[in-house]
Amino acid sequence: MSKKKSRRSHGSDHSGPEDHAQKGPQHPGDAGHAEHTFGSVTDKISSIVLTRKTSRGWLGGLLFSCMLLMVLMYASAYLLARGIGIWGTTVPVGWAFPIINFVWWIGIGHAGTLISAVLLLLHQDWRTSINRFAEAMTLFAVCCAGIYPLLHLGRPWVFHWLMPYPNTMGLWPNFRSPLVWDVFAVSTYFTCSALFWYMGLIPDLASLRDRATGRAQRVIYGMMAMGWRGSAKHWQRYEIAYLLMAGLCTPLVVSVHSIVGLDFAASIVPGWHTTIAPPYFVVGAILSGFAMVMTLMIPLRAVYRLEDFVTNKHLDNMAKVILATSMMMAYGYLCEVFYAYYSGNEYERYVTLNRALGPYAWSYWALLASNIVCPQIFWFNWARSSVPVLFFVSLAVNLGMWLERFVIVVISLHRDYLPSSWRMYYPTVWDFAHFLGSIGLFFTLMFLFLRLLPMISIFELRELVHEAEGEA
Amino acid sequence: MSRTPVPKHPLYGLLGEFEHPAQLLSAAERAYQAGYRKMNAYTPIPLHGLSDALGQKPTRLPYLVLAGGLLGGCGAYSMLYYACAISYPYNIGGRPLNSWPAFIPITFELTILGAGFAAFLGMLALNGLPHPHHPLFEVPAFSLASRDRFFLSIQSGDPQFDVEKTRTFLESLSAKVHEVPQ
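Structure tokens for the assembled complex are given below, as produced in the milestone run.
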């Protein structure tokens, strides 16, 4: 009967005695700041949505994000009118900013699924305070990612040709192409993440419905909660469904970035055609995703006074994940160099030399500095408990992961087999407009989410309180 | 007072309110022992062992998810096979038309998609959601079921149900009792 309970308590033992001794509170129930109860966690999180006045900071942030979103709209309208020639993308660099941004955003999304699904299966209870937020981040990042391949099609109005459907042309998509696999992977990823996220929200929406102060609130949250009553039968099915979804999302998240890696690996471009690409892309995705969660969570917990829930312990754990994945990336970079040397292939060797010493060498060295060197500071305890250091490193990793995709896409393409086709790549103002614009889209969605939905899973926090009481 | 013979009871049932999860768990066991069957418990957190105490069966949901996954996977592979080997065969250097390794990624993705939809929609369907209105929502105290109170409802449809006796029974379990209108 109490299988879950026992594995949960096993999980908290698992998080290590040294962590406890060092960082103290793990559960909100025994947090030093306040003694939390079922009522207090429910009220605190739901009041952020229901009763807290709309702050000027939030309004300002939303307006600024909307301005950037307008940049995206304008740039996209211009793109549709003029074609993709407005970008710097050209032969031989036919996959420039749009694909860099696509891979960057998809990678950021991965931390959300990792935190919500993989850490659930690994019994890491500390995930509870950040999983809702991280899942929202996944959804919004995938929204941003999805824009680029569509716009990059050149004729985005026929994007449905990517889908198999009976058509008068009698044609099918090329199912043997990784680019078509990508369509299926990303759309499945978005759908399953959305379902998982919404499923997690249902009991909390019921809490909001029951706490609502106005009729509009009650009706809207009531509709979204779909009549959830929290009955024993509801919970029984819910928990099974939640666990199964987590189990399904775990291989899914690995498959998505592997397939993105195959987009590159299945081609014959030097620097892309390596078997290490899929796992290396997955690890990079985890690294960038955790960095993004940290970048967003640090200001948020200060603004909304959530230090009781998102404790230094969470930041410490995320810093450790960043350090570990950064070391794996270092291994990946070393492997690439070794492949080039050991393959004896002159084109592979040239790409490697061109990365380190060619016209874009700055991006390669900047990438190594921000992805590999910066996170090394997390070996030290003081760095993992210093908020400014954590914030700085997370920004550096975000930048570094963007540069990594720049290195992979642009440096490989701009000089491949035929020296007569070599050409430098220069982004145009529209490339930057689309990039900044997607950041605007991301933050617009994020600000709306923070205001309208509970950013921390309320019912899972109540469960933690319950377990803390049981242990006490 | 004996049970009213009319099929439609004026009450949906009685609702006992408890402060602590342990009280609810033992109340559920006692109610089951007392012979009540048409009852349900409402909690702000999933309580393990509660379904067992109420005599509820394990859910069929995992089979639905399995079926959804199989449907997605088999459907995907059939589509790929039909497209590449039957509908639009395309000879690329004599390579096999049923090139199964290249079909794995899409088959895998659609398996997950099918299973994911089955898990989500199956959970909703088996739970009878969406169900915007329910008699329990008429009880003001029930709003605490999503905060910090634990409830046990015994429905008037239960053969053992009797307003007075059931009320006394619930009170004997130290519950605060609410009447739930139909």
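Chain A touches chain B through 65 residues (CB under 8 Å). Residues 1-33 of chain A have pLDDT under 50 and may be disordered. Further analysis is deferred to the final report.
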